[in-house]
Design brief:
With about 450 residues, the protein is mainly beta. It contains 2 helices and 26 strands. Strands 19, 20, 22, 23, 25 and 26 form a 6-stranded antiparallel β-sheet that branches. Strands 1-2-3-4 form a 4-stranded antiparallel β-sheet, with helices on one face. A hairpin with a 2-residue loop joins strand 13 (about 285-290) and strand 14 (about 290-300). About 30% of the residues are buried. Belongs to the GSP I family. It holds the Pfam family N_methyl.
Length: about 450
């Protein structure tokens, strides 16, 4: 009994137990195990949620494909995008529809050649995976054939494709198709209704009798790029092209047609942009893109042009017949050429497109003179001026005080001054003075042997 009592007393008096280190190690091990279990549970929930979302997406794609297959009007099955919410998840449903002709080349309107055979419908369903922010998607494709032939035997189809500057379809364009006026070659009037272009920029004329047809577009505020065969080289609001329809074939009429860009061409000296000058009675501006020139347009008037993303180079006059007006044509190295490019975009609150010219001060031959003519002449040898194929004359009126500050395109000129007799229909009749006006030498202005050189390289 005494022995047991001693043992119990010794047990109470000892302070043996878990150390703080042992406790921390135990807690760390427990935390690691708990974290692993929690991650496993979270991953399981995420995978389960992702699996359910994928099943929903597949169901949405199948429903859209079935809707296309059962459509009574396959021409109405076009590109489309929709947004749907299922079980708290937002889905984006993108449908792409392309006609495939018998040639097997698929495109938006099916203009690859041969009769229209079937439509390839692609569905892409995308959604954001919950909690992780990752976008996931599934795709599904199907071929949908029309219930009957698109065009009856021995007839043809005209496919009209209208694209914007970015390559997307131009929707809502009115289309008229009529037998070619000069050479119909068997074409007959189309009695069926030709709808406006759809979201992909397409419309169709079915069961067309073989022959030659003119296809014309109309849409308020739109303009073409000048490549349509009926208006080649001239941007127009009503472009047209001619197509030939053959038996059991598809003919394509392709256009680039978009909302017109409004510009106001101007003459401007790049080095003296704030200096006032007297413009000639006619101050044309041509807009050049690559090697194509559009215009010329009268400076200060509003013009409608095709909205190329990279804009136009503005050049005074008509560069096709006078190389001098374009600074890029000057080759002799006398300094830095004036940058001629002016993008078709708003400048200082306007849609000003500035064509570079040279401001020059001229002293008239007589104190009574009130008009001046400047005519391009053959440039001096080695001057660097590429010259003009045909002479161009600019006329300035309303001058006074024997001195005039005018602006001219670059080149070599001879000056004459006089008084105005009459102006009829914009044509000015002058009585010329016997003397010769003189130009004040300045940066870009030099005189020699009665000729005045206006140099874009600013050689003094």
């Amino acid at each position: 009994m005494l022995r047991l009592t001693e043992l119990l007393r010794d047990a109470r008096e000892r302070d043996d137990g878990f150390s703080i280190i042992e406790v921390l190690v135990a807690m760390t091990v427990f935390a690691m195990i708990a974290a692993g279990v929690a991650m496993g549970i979270a991953s399981s929930l995420y995978l389960a949620h992702g699996s359910r979302s994928r099943e929903v997406a597949i169901g949405l794609a199948q429903d859209a494909i079935d809707k296309a297959r059962t459509s009574s009007n396959l021409f109405g099955v076009t590109d489309a995008t929709d947004s749907l919410t299922r079980n708290g998840v937002d889905y984006s449903v993108k449908q792409t529809a392309r006609w495939v002709p018998t040639s097997g080349t698929a495109n938006a309107c099916g203009s690859g050649g041969g009769p229209l055979a079937y439509k390839r419908v692609s569905m892409t369903i995308s959604w954001t995976a919950g909690g992780r922010g990752a976008t996931q998607s599934i795709s599904m494709n199907s071929m949908v054939a029309p219930t009957t032939s698109v065009t009856a035997a021995n007839l043809g189809t005209i496919v009209v494709s209208v694209s914007k500057v970015d390559g997307s379809g131009n929707q809502g364009v009115g289309v008229t198709i009529a037998p070619n006026a000069s050479n119909p070659n068997g074409a007959a009037a189309i009695t069926s209704t030709i709808g406006q272009t759809d979201v992909t920029g397409c419309t169709y004329a079915l069961n067309v009798k073989p022959g030659r047809y003119d296809v014309t577009l109309t849409k308020p505020g739109n303009i073409d790029d000048g490549t349509s065969s009926g208006s080649l080289g001239a941007q127009t609001a009503r472009p047209s092209t001619t197509v030939t329809v053959q038996t059991n074939q598809t003919s394509a009429a392709n256009f680039n047609y978009d909302t017109a860009l409004t510009v106001v061409p101007q003459w401007s000296d790049p080095d003296q942009s704030t200096t006032a000058f007297t413009p000639p009675t006619s101050s044309p501006v041509s807009l050049r893109r690559k090697t194509a020139d559009y215009g010329p347009y009268a400076a200060g008037t509003t013009a409608q042009v095709f909205p190329y993303a990279d804009g136009y180079k503005a050049v005074p006059g008509t560069p096709a017949t006078c190389l001098s007006v374009d600074p890029e044509n000057w080759t002799t190295a006398k300094g830095t050429a004036v940058a001629p490019r002016a993008l078709a975009q708003p400048q200082a609150g306007t849609n000003a497109v500035k064509a570079p010219v040279q401001i020059v001060t001229v002293k008239l031959a007589s104190k009574t003179d009130n008009a001046l003519t400047a005519t391009t002449v053959a440039p001096a040898a080695n001057s660097g001026d590429p010259g003009c194929a045909t002479p161009v004359t600019y006329t300035f009126t309303g001058l006074s005080n024997q001195t005039a500050t005018i602006a001219l395109p670059y080149g070599t000129y001879s000056f004459q001054s006089g008084t105005v007799l009459k102006i009829i229909g914009g044509i000015v009749s002058l009585t010329l003075s016997s003397g010769t006006p003189s130009a004040t030498p300045a940066a870009g202005v030099s005189t020699s042997s009665g000729k005045v050189l206006l140099d874009p390289r600013r050689a003094p």
